[in-house]
Amino acid sequence: MINFRENPIGVFDSGIGGLTVFKELIKILPRENIIYFGDTARVPYGTKSEKTIRDYSIQNAKFLLSKNVKAIVIACNTSSAIALEEIQSITNLPVVGVIKPGSIAAVNSTKNKRIAVIGTTATISSKSYEKEIKCLDSSIEVYGKACPLFVPIVEEGWANHKIAYLAAEEYLSELKKHSIDTLVLGCTHYPLLRNTIQKVIGENVQLIDSGIETAQVVKKILEENDFLNRSELKPDYKFYVSDLPLQFKKVGEMFLERSIENLIKIDI
Ligand code: DGL
């Protein structure tokens, strides 16, 4: 019988963005098998209604559960903001979202208690970050800004293109007026735009990548549950997508700096 600890961690996002979380997971959990699902047929989620985001997110989680995962990582801020509790209610396995870990990191980082959060329209409208941050420290000012064009720019492979720079200037200029010292990249696509965002917002603003924090939380939960994979075998990574855009492999490989084998298209 296969050891439960060798079962994969399941990770999903609406597209390519969750690879930023995958990259952190394989760094700090190098023995874990991972299944990644990118809902490339239905990306973006961030401009859709709550009901649609919830339905898609639950379908994605059910797909991962059908692959016998031992934990689910919602590597999508939009899904984490809207569907974390519902997904937790359909399984007894650990389900980790990205909002709480990112909020804790932001609160630990700010000195002047002025934090901005950028994300998709759905994430910003949900005020999930604001609620979480205020819950940790009610004296912190939180400024939210939706940046809906960032996701298609990343999916197009234009993270370092002048179009990305122009969009960042347009979106971030208003945040600069608030003298923030910390900016949460509240969408898993945004770490791919990190250089551009840092240039526009200024070097003195600390950028928070919730993927890094989330990977730490996943490690801790696996340790606490005694779920860590102890096998010495090379880990197995499988990538599933709901559509097969050429960009997924190209942009994904460029970002991960490794080849994406085992890319399988499924009907969700
Ligand atoms: N990467 C996702 C997030 O973190 C969503 C992008 C989208 O599909 O709109 O919110």
Please describe what this structure looks like.
The protein has 268 residues and is of the alpha/beta class. The protein has two domains: 4-97 and 212-265, Rossmann fold (3-Layer(aba) Sandwich); 99-210, Rossmann fold (3-Layer(aba) Sandwich). Helices cover 45% and strands 16% of the residues. It contains eleven helices and ten strands. The chain has helices spanning 19-28, 50-66, 77-89, 99-109, 121-126, 128-136, 150-155, 162-176, 194-201, 210-224, 246-256; strands spanning 9-13, 34-38, 71-74, 95-96, 114-119, 141-146, 182-185, 206-209, 237-241, 263-265. The chain has a six-stranded parallel β-sheet, with helices on both faces. Helix 11 links the parallel strand 9 and strand 10. Helix 1 (19-28) crosses helix 10 (210-224) and helix 2 packs across helix 3. It is globular and about 55 Å long. The protein starts with 8 loop residues before the first strand and ends with a strand. The protein binds D-glutamic acid. The site of D-glutamic acid has 17 residues, from helix 3.
Summarize the structure.
By secondary structure, this protein is an alpha/beta fold. It has helices at residues 19-28, 50-66, 77-89, 99-109, 121-126, 128-136, 150-155, 162-176, 194-201, 210-224, 246-256, and strands at residues 9-13, 34-38, 71-74, 95-96, 114-119, 141-146, 182-185, 206-209, 237-241, 263-265. The protein has two domains: 4-97 and 212-265, Rossmann fold; 99-210, Rossmann fold.
Show the helix and strand layout.
Layout: E1 9-13, H1 19-28, E2 34-38, H2 50-66, E3 71-74, H3 77-89, E4 95-96, H4 99-109, E5 114-119, H5 121-126, H6 128-136, E6 141-146, H7 150-155, H8 162-176, E7 182-185, H9 194-201, E8 206-209, H10 210-224, E9 237-241, H11 246-256, E10 263-265
Parallel strand pairs: 1-2, 1-3, 2-9, 3-4, 5-6, 5-7, 7-8, 9-10
Helix pairs in contact: 1-10, 2-3, 4-6, 4-10, 8-9
The structure holds D-glutamic acid.
